[in-house]
Amino acid sequence: MIVTEDAGAAPSRVDAEQAGADTEDTGPAPSRVDAEQTGAAPGTADTEQTGAAPGTADTKDTGPAPSRVDAEQAVDAPSVAIAEHAAATPSQVVAGQAGAATGTVFAEPAALVPSVVDAVILERAAVALRLVLDRTRGRAPADDPALVETLLDATAPEQARLYAARRLGLDAMAPARVLAPQNNRPRVVPAGTEGAPHGDPGVVESRPAPPDARFPAGRLGVGPAVPVLELPRSWAAARTALRFTAEGTSQDPGPRVVYADELGGIALLADLVVPGAEPPPDARALETAAATTPWLLATLHAVASTVSLRAAAAGINVHHSTLQDRLTHAEHLLGWPVRTPQGRLRLQLALAMRHLARP
């Protein structure tokens, strides 16, 4: 019997009956390395054998190699896993685990690869976290000048504009409009909070602004509903619509609130008439006639913005025959008829250009 001393472990005993045995032995008694170790550390295991029971070294699996374990083999290739291998990789044989058989092989876990689902979950979690932080820290006022300026600046980075929209309480996935008040800072509101469109086709009409602090009193241009990142375009259209507004008085008749998406082709006039410059001839004719006839502008606006002369008479609270007399006098002052289709269109354009020419 050959006994090898392994430092730090109990000596392993090799059955003397196997010493010098023939390696060609095919009998049922394979070479056996006893695992009895008095006081050995937990985790000590028999030598790994592919397909063999733990602790049994089958010479049939290893070919003609002698089954005798000599002193050099005990040092170079010990048949037991000593406690020093406890920190080895999971692919090694680990013995003595709770609930596991001696010699169980634990495979190393595969590397985790991020998937598309993981990315979607992380993105949604980030959105939810931003919403919570906004509620915790509080949103900026709806008309914060710096944020609104960033949101309406087409040259600002996209991420900066999206951040400004969130801070203003806007949904990045929902459309919004820009309001252009007279002599005031622009406002941005979600689409659908400004009322429904109405009015006759081809006629610049106003929609009453709802009782909301975001809709200031006075003249107001309303841009089209667009996605958040296209709000600079809505801002430009709102400024154009503001030029078509009026005070709504007898000396400045017309809508106080004008929606840019109702202007259509009439909006092209804004590029032709320069504010503060010399008004076009028809606009000058209106101004000259109104200087001597106080009722002229209100009467002509009623004719230009209604569907019939009777509706115009009812709108300014005069009799139909009285309206006919006024229009006869107005045609004489202007120099063109206003009761024909062509003359009515010319009148509508003249009233619009009068507003556009204001400084």
Characteristic key phrases:
359 residues; alpha+beta; 4-stranded mixed beta sheet; two-stranded antiparallel sheet; 12 helices; 8 strands
Explain what you see.
There is one protein chain. Helix 6 links the parallel strand 7 and strand 8. The chain has helices spanning 59-62, 71-76, 116-137, 145-151, 158-167, 231-243, 269-272, 281-292, 296-305, 309-315, 320-334, 341-356, and strands at 31-32, 56-57, 93-94, 104-105, 176-181, 187-190, 220-222, 257-259. A four-stranded mixed β-sheet has the order 6-5-7-8. It has a two-stranded antiparallel sheet with strand order 1-2. Strands 3-4 form a two-stranded antiparallel ribbon. It is of the alpha+beta class. The model is unreliable at 1-102 and 195-214 (pLDDT under 50). It is built from twelve helices and eight strands. 25% of the residues are buried.
Element pattern in H and E: EEHHEEHHHEEEHEHHHHHH
Biggest sheet: strand arrangement:
6-5-7-8
Task: Summarize the biggest pleated sheet.
Answer: 4 strands, mixed
Task: Give average pLDDT, whole number.
Answer: 73
How many strands in all? 8
The separation of the N and C termini measures: 117 Å
Secondary-structure-based class equals: alpha+beta
Helical content (DSSP H or I, runs of 4+): 25-40%
Give the number of helices: 12
Strand content: 5-15%
- Give start-end ranges of low-pLDDT stretches: 1-102, 195-214
Shape: elongated
Rg from C-alpha positions?
A: 47 Å
